[in-house]
Specification:
Helix content is 55%, strand content 4%. By secondary structure, the protein is mainly α. It has one domain (2-87). Helix 1 crosses helix 5. The mean pLDDT is 92.
């Protein structure tokens, strides 16, 4: 079972980086982009643990043969072999910077 923090940590490790995880409330993010409210509120708004128990219940013989960390390493290696698929979403990065900056400013003004 993996949490979102563990998932991002393993993705970062596969890419040779340590992610700087910043937790931001879904409602706060949605305030900056109301069109994304439906995508954010629901399973993404709650802490959760993800596992494969549902597939194992329906397919008793199912066995995951590739651990998540190994799958991420293989995915990174694939992207390294296909640099044309490696792009940077400047607009999304700017959006994230704006949201995190606003959260940091709010926390600072609250004395946190």
């Amino acid at each position: 079972m993996l949490t979102w923090d563990q998932i991002y940590g393993l993705i970062g490790a596969a890419a040779g980086a340590q992610p700087d995880i910043v937790h931001v409330a879904s409602d706060f993010i949605a305030a900056f982009d109301p069109e994304q409210r439906g995508n954010l509120i629901g399973d993404k708004a709650q802490c959760g643990v993800f596992d494969n128990s549902k597939i194992r219940a329906f397919v008793p013989g199912y066995v995951a043969t590739v651990p998540f960390a190994q799958g991420m390493r293989e995915s990174v290696q694939w992207f390294e072999r296909h640099p044309e698929r490696c792009t940077i979403d400047d607009a999304f990065n700017a959006f994230c910077d704006r949201v995190i900056g606003a959260q940091n400013a709010a926390l600072a003004s609250a004395g946190a």
